[in-house]
Amino acid sequence: MNTKRLALPLALLVLASTVYATSGQDPAPRHGRRDRAARAERFERARAGREFLRGLEITDAQRALALEQARAVAPRARELRREALRIRQEAREGVRTGDREAIRAETRGRIRALRERARVELAPHGRALIDSLTPQQRAQIEARLAERGRTFDAQRASERAGRWLARPRVHERLEARSRR
């Protein structure tokens, strides 16, 4: 066997394995059983949530109110997303020229302030949805939360509903459903 022919590939193999071992990163991330199980669990939770919402028997008036609130929120939500995008872009540009940790800390603070401002602005729209719940619907929600050892907090529910209304294309989906 000619050892000269094996020397170069062997040297490259040793070099590659050394680089791989010292980099601390796996060159090809593995997607194993845990990832599949986590995805399946998220899917199941989402399915259960959809079934629960169907069981609430939302009225046509509540659907119309949700659509109205989603339309009202959509322009402001787009502005907030653009502002967040601008903040992240400024951070990317600053990282190239400045102190990374300082820029990251400043960006986190600016995004946190933007989220707080958005939460305050969107909560009243969500509050309208929460206030439209019938006593039976509210009782179903409270029972569902009690199963998990939680209680119903109208303020938190309003904030979550406001965030849902602000999601991209929610008003388009609600419009499509109202036409059915």
Notes on the protein architecture:
With 180 residues, this protein is mostly helical. The protein is 83% helix and 0% strand. Helix 4 (100-131) packs across helix 6. The protein is extended, with a radius of gyration of 25 Å.
Strand fraction equals under 5%
Secondary-structure content class:
mainly alpha
Proportion of helical residues: over 70%
Uncertain regions spanning at least 5 consecutive residues = none
Rg measurement, Å: 25 Å
Distance between the termini: 76 Å
What is the gist of this entry?
This protein is an all-alpha fold and 180 residues long. The chain is built from seven helices and no strands.
Jot down its keywords.
180 residues; mainly alpha; extended; 7 helices
List the helices and strands and how they pair.
Layout (H helix, E strand, L loop, with lengths): L2 H21 L9 H23 L4 H38 L2 H32 L3 H13 L6 H12 L4 H10 L1
Helix pairs in contact: 3-4, 3-7, 4-6
